[in-house]
Specification:
Keywords: DNA-binding, Transcription, Transcription regulation
Strand content: 15-25%
Order of helices and strands: HHHEEHEHEHEEEHEHEHEEEH
CATH topology of the largest domain: D-Maltodextrin-Binding Protein, domain 2
Structural class: alpha/beta
Strand order of the largest sheet: 4-3-5-12-6
Distance between the termini: 41 Å
Radius of gyration: 24 Å
Largest sheet: 5 strands, mixed
Domain HTH lysR-type: 1-58
Number of helices: 10
CATH superfamily of the largest domain: Periplasmic binding protein-like II
Number of domains: 3
GO molecular function: DNA binding; DNA-binding transcription factor activity
Protein name: LysR family transcriptional regulator
CATH architecture of the largest domain: 3-Layer(aba) Sandwich
Family: Belongs to the LysR transcriptional regulatory family.
Shape: elongated
CATH class of the largest domain: Alpha Beta
Number of strands: 12
């Protein structure tokens, strides 16, 4: 059994296609198929159920792929650690970033990192803070840029605060409070709100603030997309509580400082258990 055979099997399992797996691995399909069949003969099991239109892992294939991924990750880590010991950073750097991060210029940070460590393969994805915290804890993500309530912490994950920012009230230009120099949560309690879905860190910040103030509010609209949230505010359907750095300077939106508004902490997160050389280099470079 060879590592390359494992890579082929993992690629087929992910792509559900020998053709696409071969393209991804930069090898002709006949060679990839031959290696997979040779591995099946060696193991004495069928890894994939095949037809002219479908390819799916068998139960044995699912079990093999899970272990193969772990073996490949370990092999990649061994190469990266050996290279780091000789002064060269290799391997991969998987970065997550919430769509509303403003504390750093991520493209510029990645460009600077790439110029110092050209041998590192970089991957970037966007999602929510909770998803990224889980991915870091599970070892499938190296570092992430998050937005969390001030009290939030998670065991096994190191965090560096990048910025703290108090939310502002965001209202349409025709709203009765538009133009106010400041307000409190009690001034907004009777308003209809748009917010992030329940359970997300973006929503928790505002929920905790209203709870501490002893106030109830109506959240009639829920969305993860910032443009949709701001569109609902522009239309006069709702008000929102958001970090000030996310609000565009347009005449149809007004921001009002909140004396008792929630605070969002933007932070850099990474595993505090055996981080990869690439992850350590990225964190140290910021």
């Amino acid at each position: 059994m060879e590592l390359q055979q494992m890579r082929y099997v993992v690629a087929v399992a992910q792509e559900r296609s020998f053709t696409r797996a071969a393209e991804r691995c930069h090898v002709v399909q006949s060679a990839l198929s031959h290696q997979v069949k040779a591995l099946e003969r060696e193991l004495g099991v069928t890894l994939f159920a095949r037809s002219s239109r479908r390819v799916e892992p068998t139960a044995a294939g699912e079990a093999f792929v899970a272990a193969a991924r772990a073996s490949l990750d370990a092999a990649d880590r061994a190469i990266a650690d050996a290279a780091a010991a000789s002064g060269q950073i290799q391997g991969t750097l998987n970065v997550g970033a919430i769509p509303t991060v403003t504390a750093i210029d991520l493209p510029s940070a990645l460009a600077a990192f790439r110029s110092l460590h050209p041998a590192v393969r970089i991957g970037v994805r966007t999602a929510g803070s909770d998803e990224f915290l889980t991915a870091i804890a599970q070892g499938s993500l190296d570092v992430a840029l998050l937005g969390l309530p001030e009290e939030r912490a998670q065991r096994g994950i190191a965090m560096r605060t990048l910025a703290r920012e108090r939310h502002v009230a965001v209202v349409g230009s025709a709203h009765p409070l538009a133009g106010r120099a400041g307000c409190r949560l009690s001034d907004l309690a009777d308003s209809t709100f748009v917010d992030f879905p329940p359970g997300t860190p973006g929503r928790a910040q505002s929920d905790v603030a209203f709870e501490r103030a002893g106030l109830r509010r109506e959240v009639a609209f829920e969305a993860m997309n910032l443009d949709l949230i701001l569109g609902l505010v522009r239309s006069g359907l709702a008000v929102a509580l958001l970090p000030p750095g996310l609000i565009p300077e347009t005449g149809d939106l007004c921001t009002i400082p909140l004396a008792d508004g929630p605070t969002r902490v933007q932070c850099l997160a990474w595993s505090d258990f055996n981080a990869t050389p690439a992850a350590r280099a990225f964190v140290e470079g910021l």
